[in-house]
Design brief:
The complex is a heterodimer of chains A (291) and B (321).
Chain A (H helix, E strand, L loop, with lengths): L7 H32 L3 H6 L12 H8 L1 H33 L6 H13 L4 H10 L17 H12 L3 H9 L4 H12 L1 H17 L2 H6 L8 H11 L16 H18 L1 H15 L4
Helix pairs in contact in A: 1-13, 3-13, 4-7, 4-10, 8-9, 10-14, 12-13
Chain B lengths: L1 H17 L1 H11 L1 H24 L5 E2 L5 H4 L1 E2 L3 H8 L1 H21 L1 H11 L4 H12 L6 H12 L5 H10 L9 H29 L3 H9 L4 H12 L1 H13 L6 H7 L5 H4 L2 H11 L3 H28 L7
The chains are: A mainly alpha (291), B mainly alpha (321).
Chain lengths: 291, 321
């Protein structure tokens, strides 16, 4: 970047700087590498060696085991369903609400905006929200993982600002061509907003996939546990009844099994990681512009 | 003719003012589809955000699920008084404040330092690779982070304890030791969020013109003086804003993280307001009392947010609203 007349001290600094950052990169990433390695290792090896990158004996027993159990496959199904459905619901609600709020001539716009902003600084809290969810009959329903958190007010405000900054001329010309409000939203605004929609699709999807709090709060039926809650029970409570599996293995590989569940819960995130990195950085910078 | 047109213009203006009500109705009607579009979102906010706000009135009742909201007895500030007189109150306040303070001292500067270090790297490939690696944990759920923590810190074959044992001959039970709870929590936050935290600082640094560096070089400033006098000041605004935001949610320690790392052995130092509300409210069913605790925290939170906004504006920063 900037031209250097590098002093000896500066060169020493450069060397150390590279080493420090490299170490930091390794320390952040190596735990994942170990967990992946351990998920392919035998029980004996995990017990014998505290750390390794490549197991001596590579086995897929843990994966065969978890994929043969109803409990695990069902949990994955719940997580995938909630993530896909939740993201669709959240996007639909966020976009349809953000558009009218971005129209400056909408009567009552400021009242509505204040209504939204106020929820960012004050909320009824865990118990009253729980009561509402309960009285709506949503306890132990997968909708309880979606509806109470369907709109993130921060995202709503960011999308609203984005809509507000779209060139007005395009809309005006569409209106002259006889387009209605709905038509403008559907045919002009949404197609112009593809990048912002992509960003918030990822934001919401990551949230739903990673969410553990709402499942803990609202889902007590273990048949409806998402993968995060199953993993938590497996790691920290250790009383998960894998029950009705086809007992192909007399002795389930306990440690590698945990590792395998961690890996499977992580994989979707890693798969989308290149997109996440790009879009999240954009989102965070969008968010730092005041709307 | 000119006079006439002026008159008629006046008339039109008068008409517009006089028929303000009518035009408002017209405006509402003309935008009817916009309101329709807005409706589902509005229902969401009323149902899941505003109905619970009204539900906080439970904090002033002896709510009984059998009697319901309307029939339950009103008890005024009893639950608040109970809470403040309960030793739990000071325990929660202490745990929360200590964690928040540690967070500010140990975690807050970390992304700034790493951003400064990254900014000094001139080999773009190396810089990008490191960034790609250190951003990863940000996208992982707390359950995954907690699981990995368990795997590495456990006394039965965890890698960290293997190292500790190699050097000291004994193992440390990090996971259930009250002494290690806070360092563990802050360590997790540093590990998970430092990398990602650099994004906003690196963006701020991208805006620094090379001319400033060139001018500094002309003035004979070496490497470190340039970092100190050009790079760091460029981050001042961002640092101030983040500091103020942090002050606004000083009481918010992540529920998920703390819940996941809490067990019966470290509960004494682990409990914060949110986890306490969960344990007392959801698992023990003390709805009204826990609502009162939650409301107390929310009210203090509002004061902190407005306080930090006031502070921001006093210091000529953009503020929050």
């Amino acid at each position: 970047m900037h031209k250097m007349h590098n002093t000896p001290l500066g060169r020493v600094f450069d060397v150390f700087n590279h080493i420090i950052l490299l170490l930091m990169g390794l320390v952040t990433f190596i735990p994942f590498v170990y967990v992946i390695a351990a998920s392919f290792a035998t029980e004996a090896e995990i017990a014998a060696r505290p750390f390794f990158i490549i197991p001596d004996t590579i086995t897929t027993a843990a994966y065969e085991y978890i994929f043969s159990t109803n409990t695990f496959v069902r949990s994955m199904g719940v997580s995938v369903l909630v993530t896909v459905l939740g993201t669709l619901v959240s996007l639909a609600l966020t976009l349809t609400m953000a558009y009218p709020l971005s129209r400056r001539n909408l009567l009552g716009r400021n009242v509505l905006l204040n209504l939204v902003v106020f929820t960012m600084i004050f909320n009824g809290g865990m118990i009253p929200t729980y009561m509402v969810v309960r009285s709506l009959g949503l306890l132990d329903s997968l909708w309880a993982l979606i509806l109470p958190v369907a709109i993130n007010p921060f995202y709503l405000i960011i999308v609203k600002s984005f809509f507000q900054n779209l060139p007005e001329e395009l809309e005006e010309s569409a209106r002259i061509d006889g387009c209605s409000d709905m038509g403008v939203f559907w045919k002009i605004v949404l197609p112009l907003s593809k990048p912002v929609i992509a960003t918030f699709t990822l934001f919401y999807a990551v949230f739903y996939w990673n969410d553990f709090f709402n499942a803990l709060l609202y889902i007590s039926d273990s048949a409806k546990w998402p993968i995060q809650l199953l993993l938590q029970q497996l790691m920290m409570v250790a009383n998960v009844d894998f029950g009705e599996m086809d007992t192909m293995l007399a002795d389930p590989p306990e440690e590698s099994l945990k590792m395998a569940v961690v890996v499977v819960a992580t994989v979707p995130i890693l798969l989308f990681y290149p997109f996440l990195q790009k879009h999240f950085a954009k989102g965070i910078l969008l968010g730092s512009v005041k709307g | 003719m000119g006079l006439l047109s002026l008159k008629s213009k006046k008339k039109i203006v008068n008409e517009e003012e006089g028929s303000n009500q009518v035009s408002k109705m017209k405006l509402l009607f003309r935008n009817r589809y916009l309101y329709l579009l807005l409706l589902p979102g509005l229902i969401y906010f009323l149902l899941f955000k505003y109905l619970p706000m009204w539900g906080v009135l439970m904090a002033f009742q002896d709510y009984s699920p059998f009697l319901g909201f309307w029939e339950s007895k009103w008890v005024g500030f009893d639950h608040f008084i109970n809470f403040f007189q309960n030793p739990d109150f000071f325990r929660l306040l202490r745990n929360t404040l200590i964690l928040a303070f540690y967070d500010l001292i140990f975690f807050f500067p970390a992304p700034i330092i790493v951003a400064l270090l990254l900014n000094e790297i001139r080999v773009q490939f190396f810089k990008r690779t490191i960034q790609t690696l250190v951003y990863v944990p940000h996208f992982m759920s707390w359950v995954i982070i907690a699981s990995i923590t368990y795997v590495f810190l456990t006394t039965s074959g965890g890698a960290v304890n293997a190292i500790v044992e190699y050097f000291t001959g004994e193992t440390i039970n990090f996971l259930s030791s009250p002494d290690w709870f806070r360092p563990m929590i802050i360590g997790q936050v540093i590990w998970k969020e430092t990398g990602w935290g650099t994004v906003i600082f690196l963006a701020a640094l991208a805006g620094v013109s090379t001319e400033q560096y060139e001018a500094a070089i002309m003035d004979g400033a070496g490497r470190f003086r340039r970092m100190w006098h050009v790079t760091l000041p460029a981050l001042r605004g961002t640092i101030m804003i983040l500091l103020i935001l942090r002050l606004g949610n000083f009481l918010d320690q992540g529920f998920q993280q703390i819940y996941l790392m809490t067990n019966s052995l470290n509960r004494e130092v682990a409990d914060v307001f949110d986890t306490y509300v969960y344990f007392v409210g959801i698992t023990q069913g003390a709805f009204s009392y826990s609502t009162a605790v939650g409301l107390f925290k929310a009210v203090v939170g509002i004061i902190l947010i407005y306080g930090s906004d006031y502070l921001a504006k006093k210091m000529k920063q953009p503020g929050l609203f």
